[in-house]
Amino acid sequence: MLLSLPALHLQTSEHHPLFQLPHGRLGPWCRPTGSPAPLSCEIGCGEGSWILVCRLLVPTQVSLLSMEEDIDTRKINNSFLRDHSYATEADIISTVEFNHTGELLATGDKGGRVVIFQREQESKNQVHRRGEYNVYSTFQSHEPEFDYLKSLEIEEKINKIRWLPQQNAAYFLLSTNDKTVKLWKVSERDKRPEGYNLKDEEGRLRDPSTITTLRVPVLRPMDLMVEATPRRVFANAHTYHINSISVNSDYETYMSADDLRINLWNFEITNQSFNIVDIKPANMEELTEVITAAEFHPHHCNTFVYSSSKGTIRLCDMRTSALCDRHTKFFEEPEDPSNRSFFSEIISSISDVKFSHSGRYIMTRDYLTVKVWDLNMENRPIETYQVHDYLRSKLCSLYENDCIFDKFECVWNGSDSVIMTGSYNNFFRMFDRNTKRDVTLEASRENSKPRAILKPRKVCVGGKRRKDEISVDSLDFSKKILHTAWHPSENIIAVAATNNLYIFQDKVN
């Protein structure tokens, strides 16, 4: 579904030992133990302005809805209407990803669907619409399955989507659920063949005895049709649930990571993969950590990193050995004994790791902070940003409602100068690495009034609360920004909030 709003200005200025979660997922720890082109303009957190270009809703069926919020009439396709307040669990967006040019934006949801949005062409008359995205294609990527040998249900939820660089007119992307990775081809067709010799116009085979002449088939124009076809299915290689996929810079291989292993695949071979990391101990009672995320280096096809639930990052070089059981570099920040608490191990678990576009830095996200690491310095991060430090006093309640296990993602902008990550109450945070300024913005329909200026949000921890502040006790922990994406070369961002996808761009004067 697509919902276009008038432009809106946004002022920016698991218990130990390891236990099993439902569906066999390995859980976290719960008991403490002893370079694209530079951006057209840089974001100045706190100084620039952002515009809500459009708010998109993930369709609950392969039907599209287009409506204008400033009028009462609603244009409905296929007699189908879905309001955002009736979102089901299957509608919740579980991943967001721009392609390499930024012209396409893909989302995956818990219902196993992939929705691709295409950017509007620039118009001299409507410059403010240059970042608007409309539905391009919708298809069912994964279906729910059942593993009869293990008596486990395999969810259809899309965990990750990764685009491949465009080589021809078609687009290719990888999508994965807990067990199976699929390679999809998305292509356009605007012509159909006519004039078959052995078939009639309705496609039925003709009697050969009635064929007395031969004719040359011709291509006739037809309405544009976007087709999504699965080209490869990579299955039966993971015992545990896949949490990451990453395309290599050689564009011939990719890797998939689960809780204990990382596998290397060739795009042309579906029945065999190479295990490059295996941290599973001979005795599972000796297990102390799990893999949480993994990514290839953007330029060096032999290098990759993976993070763990202990807050560590390992850099591996595939040239050293076939099995990268020994890391090349080990990144870990020593823990401050004064900050040690019951929840230290849980909140130090890394939920996302990303190489910078330059390949020089690594960004990691744990529960409370975002950290930037230099590949040449392993003992501590060069930058640490507090995302929502005001929640440190709320960790007990966050543990009770399982929010402490939420996996937030983080992204770089195109020039690696700004980083973005999500928080609760539909807040998302931006940190400018050059000016050290930060801003908190909110992706909310209630605040999406036409042409309204949305000031940066501030959270009050205690004491007297100002008029424009929100108390930490009033935060809605059911509303969370887990998945975000940044356009590879422009200041356009996509923020997923439940079943809503908000697209913002920098203000054009």
Automatic annotation (TrEMBL):
| Keyword annotations from UniProtKB, A to Z | Repeat, WD repeat
Q: Which GO terms describe its cellular component?
A: protein phosphatase type 2A complex
Question: What InterPro entries does the record tag this protein with?
Answer: PP2A_PR55 (IPR000009), PP2A_PR55_CS (IPR018067), WD40/YVTN_repeat-like_dom_sf (IPR015943), WD40_repeat_dom_sf (IPR036322), WD40_rpt (IPR001680)
Q: Which molecular function term from Gene Ontology is one that the record holds?
A: protein phosphatase regulator activity
Q: Which PROSITE patterns match?
A: PR55_1 (PS01024), PR55_2 (PS01025)
The entry assigns this protein to a family as follows: Belongs to the phosphatase 2A regulatory subunit B family.
Q: What is this protein called?
A: Serine/threonine-protein phosphatase 2A 55 kDa regulatory subunit B
